[in-house]
Amino acid sequence: MAPPAATAPAPSVDDAAREVVEWLLLEGRHAPGFEQMMDRFCRRLMASGVPLLRAVCALPLLHPQIRTIAFFWRRNAEQVEIATRAHGTETSDEYLTSPFATLIEDGADGLRYRLEQMEPPYPYPVFAELKAQGATDYVAMTVLFAGGRRNVLSFTTDRPGGFSTADLALVDAVLPALGAVLETLALRRLATTVLDTYVGHRTGARILSGDIRRGTGANVRAVLWYCDLRGFTSLADRLPREELIALLNGYFEIMGGAVESRGGEIMKFIGDAMLAIFPLEESDPTGAAACTKALDAAQEALTDMAARNAERAAWGQPTLRCGIALHMGEVMYGNIGSANRLDFTVIGPAVNLVSRIEGLCSRLERNVLTSAEVAEACASRLVSVGWHPVKGLNDPIEVYGLKEKTGTNEGTDE
């Protein structure tokens, strides 16, 4: 009779932790994002014997609108769920009565609650939800980044008896490596967020790809958008700072939202003016598609501005008026600036011309004016409003307005 086959001994906690750490440092840090890394990490823990039902990772962000982003992994879910929390939610009851507030705000290093041994009332409302899902044990711990920023990771199991000592020892052993990988991914996301916020998605992608040397750039054909708020100087003189900032933000939200919703990219804000572009695609050699997008964006912006003005008038606030100019031409798109301070933007005669055309809007009492180049691509929507001199050019230029007026120039010049 053959001897029974030998059974391989179960790996020790040290061996299992070493395997997870090696995976984190060699493969996990190359995950394309938090979601993929979170899913692969949790499944690695399960393969090492840790009986996970759910895991949550919460990371505070440096973002103009989002304070915290959380990733929810569930054993039977197809993908990791992402939830964001806006600035201000840190004072909400939902947050202040959560285990994460205890760890982030109160400085606790870790929490553990044997849910299967607990009855209401629970110290944290979320425990009722977890028990309803069959959870038996809950563990949460802080993950520190360089500089002491506190992040939180929680694990839940539904195994009777909860997590074993070996389970918790394994998790504790891999936390430093996990923290290093999470920080790498967080810095990558931070760089993308900051660039998207301050220079735009398309420009940010170029910068992250390495296009950062001063003087580099490319010639691009695009429809240029330039808008300016009327009467801003007078408003700035008499409105309180907070009200003025809110007014500008609301105005740029309308203008920028219309541009970005149609594939345009904001280049820069210049006081109360905004410069944006709609680059021509290879499939759009005449620029008709780009011009159509820009005109659609202008009409949407004016419609939204009229709605906002109706609200402001109802509250007895001054209404807003603006001019929008469109021109199609070639620009140089690239890095310009001093040795230590660069601006990734567009320059060229076309940029100067579109700003000059916008200057005619008030004089001609038009919300939207375009150059002949735009009119040629979208002739059915535009009508000539004559030839007019503009600063910097020897000869007058022909400008065009919308056949159907959108919004009005009603109001008094400030």
State the separation between the terminal residues, measured CA to CA: 103 Å
Structural class of the helix and strand makeup? Answer: alpha+beta
- Helix content class: 25-40%
Low-pLDDT segments: 1-9, 408-414
Mean pLDDT: 86
> Biggest sheet, open or closed, and with what strands and sense?
6 strands, antiparallel
Radius of gyration: 29 Å
| Outline type | elongated
Instruction: List the total number of helices.
Output: 12
> Strands of the largest sheet, in order across it?
3-2-1-6-5-4
Protein name: Adenylate/guanylate cyclase domain-containing protein
Summarize the structure.
The chain has 414 residues and is an alpha+beta fold. The chain is built from 12 helices and 14 strands. It comes from Azospirillum himalayense.
Overview of the structural elements:
A hairpin with a 5-residue loop joins strand 5 and strand 6. It is elongated and about 85 Å long. The protein is built from 12 helices and 14 strands. Helix 6 packs across helix 7. It has a 6-stranded antiparallel beta sheet. It is α+β, with helices and mostly antiparallel strands and 414 residues long. The N terminus and C terminus are likely disordered. Pfam families: Guanylate_cyc. This is Adenylate/guanylate cyclase domain-containing protein. It comes from Azospirillum himalayense.
